[in-house]
Amino acid sequence: MAGWPGWGGDECPHCGAFTHEGASLTPRLCHGCASSPPPFRARSLFPYEGAAGEAIRAIKYGRRVVPARAMAERLLLDGILGRWTALFPDDFRPVVVPVPILPFKYLRRGFNLPSLLGSALARLAGWRCNLALLERISEKGPQAGLHQRERRGNVEAAFRVARRHRNVPDDLLLIDDVFTSGATAAACANALKRGGARNIVVLTVARAVLHNS
Ligand SMILES: [Zn+2]
User: Which option is the CATH number for 37-207: 3.30.2320, 3.40.50, 3.40.1440, 3.90.580?
Assistant: First the structure.
């Protein structure tokens, strides 16, 4: 993955949506954030299409070895210490929280990519990581193939803060593999905010490209 080109175009300054192919001097908020911004700020490394998209799909579904450390290095060096420094000032020391999967999926796949990635990133950055802060409790069906509104309804109640964690840290870094509609990130962020979190940044390896924004 060392050779995969990161996104070189504009990204929405709030949700990180990949908007225009060419980079402009002052990127604008995407349509979604201009009307109702999500309860987090987010950034992603690669467009979820082409060679990088194929490779990430293969990794996500266990058809290829997970290069968790290499992905975490790209997130840290290209993003956190590179083009996203405005979101990561020196005094921002978040607790890293991966988006969980349902236990039966974990047993079937044997791994959760966001957990592997979150642990590797926390180790590299010197941040704390909490793999068990969020729990995935339900899901009516798979997200793939659903429209944005259906996705939101599907995952809205799917996450909660684990009961043994009464004190949710103020600053959290939520890690996921792919950002599609943002419905999963919003459901997680809402659960964390109900638990007391204040500032949530979402990082994903890949992101669906909005070609009409
Ligand atoms: Zn946006």
Answer: 3.40.50
